Amino acid sequence: MHRPRRKKTQQSETVRYFFHARRGKATFDDTEGSGFPTAKAAAAHAEIVAMELSVGGRWQGTWVLVVDETGREIARVQVPPPL
Questions:
Q1: Residue 1 lies in a domain
Q2: Which of 1, 22, 50, 66 has the most CB atoms less than 10 A away?
Q3: Host domain of residue 22
Q4: pLDDT, tens digit, for every residue of 11-35?
């Protein structure tokens, strides 16, 4: 099994995670990704992304999918209704 590449930094190793947005059958791919030390940290970031997307209601019902470098989905967070 292929493991995600880890990039060493001064403080810890990081793995690149991608935050795709899926709405119905359309998926908006994150092609850049961001580095996080753990899958749990990446999933927590997805919660923040979902809250940011909720502003204005345009993205309501969209899912933020967190995918690691191997393409494995590690989390899924739905964008909530606007506050």
A1: no
A2: 66
A3: 6-78
A4: 568 999 999 999 999 999 999 999 9
